[in-house]
Amino acid sequence: AINGFTLSCFGYPQIEGSITWNPENTLLTYRPLRPLKEGTEYTILLSKELTDLSGNPLEKDSIVIFYTIATANPEIIYLGPENNSFNVSVETPVVVDFSEPIDKNTVNTETFRLLRDDSSPVAGSFDFLMENSRVVFRPEENLDFNGRYSIELTGGIYDVSLPALPLIKTSNPVFTTATEPLMPYILYLDPPAGVIGSVVIIAGSGFDPDPSMNTVLFNGTRAEVRESSLTTIAVGIPVGAVSGDVTVTVNGSISNAMQFNVLSQSLDPCEEVTANINTGSKSRDVAINPEAGLAYVTNSGSGTVSVIALNIDDEEKIIKTVRVGEEPMKIDIDPLGKFAYVTNYRSHTVSVINLVDYTVRTIKVGENPYGVVVSPDGKVYVSNETSQDVSVIDVNPESGGFNHVIANINTGTRNRDIDISPEAGYVLVAGDDGLTIINVNQGDINYNTVIANVNTGTRTRDVEVTPEAALAIVSTDEGDLFIVDIYPYSDSFGSVIANINTGTRSRDVVVSPDAMFVYVTSEEGSVSVYKIDIGGVGSINTSYSRQIGLSLHTVIPAEVINARELEGIVIDYNADYLYVVNPDFSNGFGQLIQISLCCGPILPENAIRNLIINIQNMLNSGLINKGNANALITKLNNALKMIDKGQTKTAINILNAFSNQVEVLSKSGDIPQQRADAIIYANDAIIFNLENPPLKSFDMNLFGDESNALCEATIEKIFPNPFSETISVYFKIQNNNNQDMNVNIRVYNSAGQLIKILTSMTMPVGDYIIKWDGRLENGQEAPDNVYFIYFRAGDSQATRKIILQRNY
């Protein structure tokens, strides 16, 4: 069944097909994949799985029985090339789909002909597909360039019924071939990302109607072609596929390449609360710096933002409290981690926090700003509740409108939260009247205008776009969770395609980086975890989005979290932890709660895939060109293949070459310096894990009670702290086997940016001292500020906060 709908007949418990809805979600259309049989009884079952937009199911299952007509004349339901089409490949076959199986003995050069402009016939042969309901005529030789051709079908074609009935409505379409050779061409992929086994629709031209004649490769891995026509191919993402280019080969001709992101399946979420961090008064929202272990929490009661160091061992984790406006609500960080943007509900302003020196700039926006989102293209969008509009702030320093509101987009409703698609094509705004979709593609005629209003039947509160930009997840005040199709090529764009009632008053929503899980905070203090179910059955007539559903995976109860209510929610950059905001933990003060997401260490393979996604996001954001991105992704994919083959040393060599290439691109200005540093650091961690694989459980058990003493590499002390000139880090390397260990000690600033590598080398067992003179990697003096010493040796790691005060 598809979302509670089943069509069946005797011997066929489920007739394959696709579902579409009208924009109001009141009319359902089901299109069978194959023509129905004549004179046959069919049953439609509408089960209680069908719900209205509020989550209320049908009272009972409903069954409808109908009979197809006993006999009917065959009809043409598709013919290609289509009438009056131009620029058709000279290698094209002619494809005709009939409404029922036809007698192939009646298809010959008298009843089915391809004619030149002078009426002379083209010689060729016939193929019969889809149980003889599809006929393909293949010319013996290529057609002429810039030639005009007509297709002639006559009433001499019969079906296989008794008595046999002829084709009545004949057709004589004409088409013109191209003036030069054409390759198969991919126009778009639907969806642009997916998990192994899900269906991808390839739309374009120059494909073959016989699935076996098309070769589809996902970055070199061949996919099973399930269906095809001249303009579409349906394939399943093959096992072993990795992110990269998709190509189609037809008759030896290779199409253009189009990027596709293969998403890895998440590990099941855990329910372990691993940290509780006190924050400010009436905390509301949280954001994570993409390349740092820092969290930023808005405190609406005190008008502040708490800056929290997540990885330090000190009991006091708040390293800075930044004063902003009155009743700060939402916060977002720019892609480079330089600035944070905070909406101040009562001040009608946005505070711009410099994340290096924590200075604040204030920008006036609309009345009662609520949500904020930073676009990859140098703009900030602010949803204003009372003025019912979206303020657009230009944050491009090279622009004349820098740090000013340059546009106000009217939504016509009171707004709540806001999000943007990763490619900066759409802004989505939750509010009283459902979901508003705004086109923010500067190259489009509808730029900065509302192009769709999604009616959810209730007030929406939060909206989150999935990483591959195909879906929007929307929460409501009444506890409903909706999935809205926002893939631009989908027939159901701007429509609700799935919904579920959470049974509690929902607050904020976040989607896992692999688009597999949805996490929802509630007014009652729990976190509900839903799995995005992707159907395995699809066809060339079935959109990716229409195979989507939601199912409850688990609930992390309020008793485990120790919260009476929850607000903001975010997943850290590596998808290790979920962070939720408890607005009133004790005496009006909030708390940031850390929940473990992945049970066990992140495998190097998954970390490499995260790097691939990172580079693809940079490509989508215009931070790297396609040639350089593909070169880097190719290296990472090659490293994955070597790991899969067990050739770890070769994989490490490839990853080292990858880092060298990133460094070259950074020095030439082809990658932003901060992004390059973050990528190299993440890659160094992958190499480190490959060189130092974790001990297996049976190895640890050999040591009995001494297993905890296998590695005791630690920072023993740091002195003096604060310091004015030089600081000394005292550390110990020790393990039971007296083996040398790889040691990395680095210095990060409060924005999470790597500023100095103190050491990265193999060291024998012993006690050591290493000093930092307060200078950056380029030799310049670091400014007075808070910094962090990151230490890693073997499986041991630690972070310590230090303070540089030159006048101390």
Topology:
Blueprint (H helix, E strand, L loop, with lengths): L4 E5 L7 E5 L6 E5 L8 E6 L15 E6 L8 E5 L4 E4 L5 E5 L13 E5 L7 E6 L4 E6 L8 E6 L20 E4 L7 E6 L2 E3 L3 E7 L8 E5 L2 E8 L3 E5 L7 E7 L2 E2 L3 E6 L9 E9 L1 E6 L5 E6 L4 E6 L8 E6 L4 E6 L5 E6 L4 E6 L5 E5 L4 E6 L4 E6 L4 E6 L9 E7 L4 E6 L5 E6 L2 E6 L9 E6 L5 E6 L5 E6 L3 E6 L10 E6 L4 E6 L5 E6 L4 E8 L13 E9 L1 H4 L7 E3 L5 E10 L2 E8 L7 H17 L5 H19 L3 H20 L5 H19 L5 H5 L12 E6 L7 E7 L7 E9 L4 E10 L2 E7 L12 E9 L2 E9 L4
Parallel strand pairs: 7-13, 15-22
Antiparallel strand pairs: 1-4, 2-3, 4-5, 6-8, 8-11, 9-12, 10-11, 12-13, 14-16, 16-19, 17-18, 17-20, 18-19, 20-21, 20-22, 23-50, 24-25, 25-26, 26-27, 28-29, 29-30, 30-31, 32-33, 33-34, 34-35, 36-37, 37-38, 38-39, 40-41, 41-42, 42-43, 44-45, 45-46, 46-47, 48-49, 49-50, 51-52, 52-55, 53-54, 53-56, ...
Helix content: 10-25%
What amount of the residues lies in strands? 35-45%
Backbone CA Rg:
30 Å
Number of strands: 57
Low-confidence runs of at least 5 consecutive residues: 535-546, 694-711
Largest pleated sheet: 9 strands, mixed
Average predicted confidence as pLDDT: 81
CATH evolutionary superfamily of the largest domain: YVTN repeat-like/Quinoprotein amine dehydrogenase
Number of helices: 6
Distance between the termini: 71 Å
What is the count of distinct domains?
Answer: 6
Assembly type of the shown chains?
single chain
Which class of the largest domain in CATH terms? Mainly Beta
